[in-house]
């Protein structure tokens, strides 16, 4: 049975405009397009749309979803089972946050008194929010190699790396009002490039430049970078771009 795009929209709650967008980017194309230009979707496209919506609910970007669904290794049943586990964990975390919110309201009203630890129950920042972005931009190999290197490192080594990264950021942040093309800034950026490659990332100059662009394109990066000083993310993007261009010259 083929369904018109309007019928699919009514059935799924996804707008016609969104379905047209999915078609334009090759994420979800209709089984058939009539001579009059009407899109018609089969049961197979509905199953694919369900997968897209599950992935979207879990925070995946459209480009990444397309790559997953087109992978020759993709298994729908396995994906559904993994999505169920992830959504159950998300529900449990939201339940914990709701309890924390309700308890905080009572605390503000003076009905109970929360400890500092209790005020933050349900928040979880253990997962790296940038790993998916890195995988999409530079592939799994570099990320896996870096993760393995860090996993094999002793805790004191991981701590040392964190301290070195922070020291480099503070050094560069102190220069953020300078021209990013100056030799002083470029020497410091060279240290950042060497530091990243020393951690096992194996950044090419192009990937290094892309990372700099990500600092200003992704608000999560910008927010974290600018903790070291207003405009630090923009400064780093410019300086890293210049360094990459010089390495490729």
From TrEMBL:
Protein name per its UniProtKB record: MerR family transcriptional regulator
Entry-linked CDD domains: HTH_TipAL-Mta
One Pfam family from the record: TipAS
UniProt KW keywords: Activator, Coiled coil, DNA-binding, Transcription, Transcription regulation
Gene3D superfamilies membership: 1.10.1660.10, Antibiotic binding domain of TipA-like multidrug resistance regulators
SMART domains, alphabetized: HTH_MERR
InterPro entries: DNA-bd_dom_put_sf, MerR-type_HTH_dom, MerR_fam, TipA-like_antibiotic-bd, TipAS_dom
Domain HTH merR-type: 1-71
Sections of the chain in a coiled coil: 77-118
């Amino acid at each position: 049975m083929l369904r018109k795009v309007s019928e699919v929209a009514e059935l799924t709650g996804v707008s016609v405009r969104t379905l047209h967008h999915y078609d334009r980017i090759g994420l979800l194309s209709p089984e058939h397009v009539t001579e009059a230009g009407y899109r018609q979707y089969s049961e197979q496209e509905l199953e694919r749309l369900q997968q897209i919506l599950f992935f979207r609910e879990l925070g995946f970007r459209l480009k990444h979803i397309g790559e997953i669904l087109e992978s020759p290794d993709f298994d729908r049943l396995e994906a559904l089972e993994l999505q169920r586990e992830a959504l159950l964990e998300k529900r449990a975390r939201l339940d914990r946050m709701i309890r924390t919110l309700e308890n905080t309201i009572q605390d503000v009203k003076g009905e109970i008194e929360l400890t500092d630890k209790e005020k933050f129950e349900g928040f979880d920042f253990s997962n790296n929010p940038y790993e998916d972005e890195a995988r999409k931009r530079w592939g799994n190999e570099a990320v896996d190699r870096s993760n393995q290197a860090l996993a094999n490192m002793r805790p004191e080594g991981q701590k040392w790396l964190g301290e070195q990264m922070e020291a480099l950021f503070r050094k560069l942040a102190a220069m953020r009002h300078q021209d990013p093309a100056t030799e002083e800034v470029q020497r410091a950026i060279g240290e950042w490039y060497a530091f990243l490659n020393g951690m096992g990332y194996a950044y090419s100059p192009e990937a290094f430049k892309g990372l700099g662009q990500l600092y200003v394109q992704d608000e999560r990066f910008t927010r974290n970078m600018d903790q070291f000083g207003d405009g630090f993310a923009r400064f780093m993007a410019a300086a890293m771009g210049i360094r990459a261009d010089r390495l490729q010259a």
